[in-house]
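Q: How would the structure tokens look for this protein?
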Amino acid sequence: MQKGWTHKLLGYAGYGILFVVFISVVVCAEVLNRKHRATQPIQSLKVTITEGASSPLADKESIERWIRDAELLKPNTTLENVDLATIEHRAAEHNAVAKANAYVDYEGNAMLDVVLREPIARLRADGYDLYITEDGFLLPTVADRTAAVPVITGTYRPLFRPGYSGYAKSVVADSIAVLDKLIKSLEDDKLPIYRQLDDNDKVLREALSESVRKGIFMSDSEYKVLLGDLESRKVVARERHTATKRKLEAQIEALAMEQDVARQKQSSVRAAGEDFDALLGFLKHVDNNKFWSAEVVQIMLAGGNGKRMELRFVPRSGTFVVDLGAPSGYDTKLSNLYRFYTKGLDNVGWNKYSSISLRYSGQVVCR
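A: Here is the predicted structure in token form.
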């Protein structure tokens, strides 16, 4: 019995010693690691493009220069003192960078993994020259780099200004927020006018409630004069009340009209946002389809400034222009066009028509 307990105690002691050794190793490793991070200077910056390596708007070298130009990695900076968050923020400020993740390795390298944005179209309409990415980000062109993507031309006027960089949906949201603020401000401007209307009614009620009493020694003629004066004052009070009420109601109506204009602008902004979302969907559909990404060469847009968007495009095949009308239902429209390509144009010839319209549901109209 004693022998069994002795074995157990020895076993427990052995486990205890192993646990103490394990903790000691962990603690020593952590101490050495901290000492290493406190003394190891940064050797180099290494950029790895994890997604979007085919993007023509940036490469490893240009991203490295972008980080170095900010002088975030000064000589003799140790691993412990590297500001990884600032490096990530600086990388994200580059228009071509969608995501950035910075870290350091044991050898003393600052590592930066980036995801690059890849353009799916280039907007060159009425003073605009920028790229549109798949997530709806707008970024300026680069002088020495060109993306082989469809070019958008035409008379279309988007909500964002030329040279804008950022998400198109942000412009829509900001514009609606500004108009919401204006509508609320105009509503607040009505409140003191409503109070003036109430005060105006109160003044009239007080005037109409006024009365005169005939004194004991007052003659009938004197009393009649008092009544006439009272009635005259009431007539004047009514007229003043009516004039003031009309003036105040006109002010309220003017503010309401400004609100209506703001709401109409909001509707126009929302419609423009919906149109751009539909355009983006069309561009993504084309980019993700092997056939259409090779077939769609130029996109021509009309609309903007309160007018709904309309879309036409120039295909690589034939001598015609394809008219889609509104940029909605494009998947069905393109499917109908593809069937017409294979079952119609192959028979009648690719140069027979100058225009193919897909505006109307289920119809392919050729001219």
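The radius of gyration is 38 Å.

The first helix runs from residue 2 to 39.

Upvote if useful.
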